[in-house]
Each structure stands twice: as C-alpha cells, then as structure tokens.
Amino acid sequence: MKQFDLVIVGAGIIGLAHAFHASQAGLNVAVIDRSPNALGASVRNFGMLALNAQAPGSQLSSAHKSLRYWQAIAPQAGFELRQSGCIFVARAPEEMAVLQEFAQSAKMAAHGAHLVASEDLGRYCPALNADRALGALFSAETWKVDQRQANAKMAAWLQQKYDVSFYFSTEVQEVSPPHISTSAGNFTANHVVLCGGDEFASLFPDAFAANGVKSCQLQMMRTHPQPKEWRLQPFVMGGLSMSRYSAFSSCPSLKDLLTMQAQRFQPHIDHGIHVIIAQEPDGSITIGDSHAYGDGRILARSSEVDALILAEAADLVHLAEPQIAERWLGHYAYLPNATSLVFSPADGVTAVNQTSGQGMTHGFSIAKDVIADMVR
User: What is the reported pLDDT for 41?
Assistant: First the structure.
C-alpha cells in the first residue's frame, strides 16, 4: 500500500502544476498517468503562453501569475522559454479597423502592444507576406515554451527537487478516498485531484456530464525544419484569431469583422479554424488549428480542414520549407464561456479542467488556488 497526502491523476501541465504547488505546501505527492509519458494537450499544442489573448482583468492577471512560475521553473528544469511576441496581421479593412480600435483602448498598454505599419512588418517578421498586409498589431506579452520537452523535464525536476513520485503506464481504476485502486496496486491519500484533460469518461463520468463539459478536437501540423538562416520570430495570426480571442471582444468594429467573415470565411467558421503559426526550437513550423466539439469520440481527420488551414497559413507567411512532416489530433476539455472547471465529484476528490484550450497559459494560477483551498 502506497501512502501519500495527495494523489494527482494526470501528468499533463495541469497535473504538474498541482504537484508543484502541493509540494511547495509541504505535501507528499504522487502523480499517476496511464500513458508512458504525457501525450495529451500539454504536448500537442503551440507552446504558447497567450497573454496576448486575455481580456484585461482576472483573465490577464491569471496569465501573468502563471507566467511568473514558468519563468522560475524553466531554467531550473532545463527547458526553453522565450519571449517571442505575437503579431496579428490585418489583410482586410475590417481587420485593420479592429486593430486600430484596440490600439486606442486602455488594453494596449496591458498587452505591451503597438501598431505596425505595413512597410515596417519585415522588422518584426521577415517571413510575412507583407504585400498582402495593411498593417499589424505586435504584442510583446506572448511567450514560447518548448512544449515537446517541458512536461518530461518538469516531471524529472519535480521528482528530483520535491521528491514527487510518478507512476506512468498506470491505469486508475477506482477513486474513493482515502483509497485509490490502480493497475500498479493500491494507494491511500487524503485527497485526490483529477487532471485528466478531456479523458473524463472513466472516472465520475456522470458528474462531468452534469457540468456540461465536452471534448474539443483539433487538427494540427508541423513542417520539416526550416533552413538555419530562416526565422519566423513571433507567433503569427490573422483576422480569424481576432474574432476568437477575448482581448478584442469589446472593440465596436468587431461586429463588422464578424459580418465580413460570415461572408468570406464560412467554411473556416464551420470548422472552428483560426490559424496560428509558430516556430519550434528545431526550426520546424507548427501550424493549426481547427475546433470540433463533441462527446470525446475521436473524429476522422478531414483533408478539407487541413487544406483550409494550410491555405490561410500560406497567405500569411512564406515558408522556405512548406512540406508537412507530421499531422496529429489534439484534444482538450471544453466548457462554453468558462476558462476552467473546478468541482468535487466525491468527498476528498477535486476535478480540475482548463476548458478554453489555454492550460499552459493559466495552469499554474488555477492550481495555486486549488491547493491553497485544500491546505487552508
């Protein structure tokens, strides 16, 4: 019988964030994951700490809190974190109007943002198709994590520094604190935190269903590494991201942008596409993504969706090496109009889901509050 103060189910970034804060609070922690390593949303993403996407207030404050933990942990755990910035490119008058309104709002300073004239775009992102652009908004408050390395290195660091116990390739069969039954034997713990992303069908499925949480499936791709001299520098987005991110939600001209998009981008809207382009440490380019909401069943990959994403990406950026080397599906838990879901499906159990696809941006902040309530 393995005894702990806290057992965390799920070794993605939300689970690791809880392990970090619980260890700092002096708890003896175990993390259990059914996979050999983290395989879900925490590694199948862009590695974006999207402070640029947050509405000022509680959203932006949460993102800043999480960023401070990333900045402290990254050099200790040995993975890359850099301030990449993000550029929103306007290619239509309706898009430019939103950016200009944003530039005149109080939000501008909060996001470390400024307008970029079309003739100056090359200074920020030489790879942009500048001849198609009317201008852009550059936000410095965007950070790039090496998402393919961060989880594994953070887990190793938590194990070494805080003596967190990890049990990978271990299936949790039943949770009834203080007893936890798994394929690796029985555990006891005062409390259990469920951080399984969208894998909520096996443990307390009725409780998750009652909260209305769904699964979101994404289509994403990655190119071969670009030539060494070719650099993207910031994250690149277009008008479809402006209409999706809450940072722009109070701009009056957003209504005109939505009307234009309904006329010209209806297939993209139907598939929940907004294109993000990011460069990885090895030089490859991650491109995505789409959003299909459902009950967690894996949907067939759509070549039509891939084609829409790649066409939009090509209109934004000229890639030296555009050939796609890898395609994959991502998944995360989704709840409309909510950034997170925290509830107790049973005594001694807390379920935690980041429900807007921004677990890396908010995970440490959410986990800090959960653990603080637990040890109060």
Answer: 55
Q: Where are the beta strands (DSSP E) in 178-284?
A: 179-182, 185-194, 214-223, 235-237, 276-279
Domains delineated in the chain: 2-43+148-211+338-375 (3.50.50.60), 86-140+214-334 (3.30.9.10)
Kindly state the tokens that stand for 168.
């990978």
Residues 280-301 pLDDT 10s:
999 999 999 999 998 767 788 9
φ, ψ for residue 373 (rounded to 5)?
-65, -35
Q: Could you tell me which of 4, 1, 8, 12 has the C-alpha nearest to residue 360?
A: 12
What is the full DSSP assignment across 255-298?
Answer: HHHHHHHHHH-HHHHHTT---EEEE-TTS-EEEE---EEESSPP
Cα Rg of the chain, angstroms = 21
Q: What is the DSSP string of 304-363?
A: HHHHHHHHHHHHHB--SS--EEEEEEEEEEE-TT-SEEEEEEETTEEEEEE-SS-HHHHH
Classified as helix, coil or strand, 138 is: strand
Cα 79 to the chain's mean position, in Å?
Answer: 17
Tokens 């404050």 found at: 61
Contact 306, 322 (CB under 8 A): no
Q: Packing angle between helix 254-264 and helix 93-103, nearest 10 degrees?
A: 160
Taking only the tens place, the pLDDT of each residue in 224-255 is 999 999 999 899 999 999 999 888 988 999 99
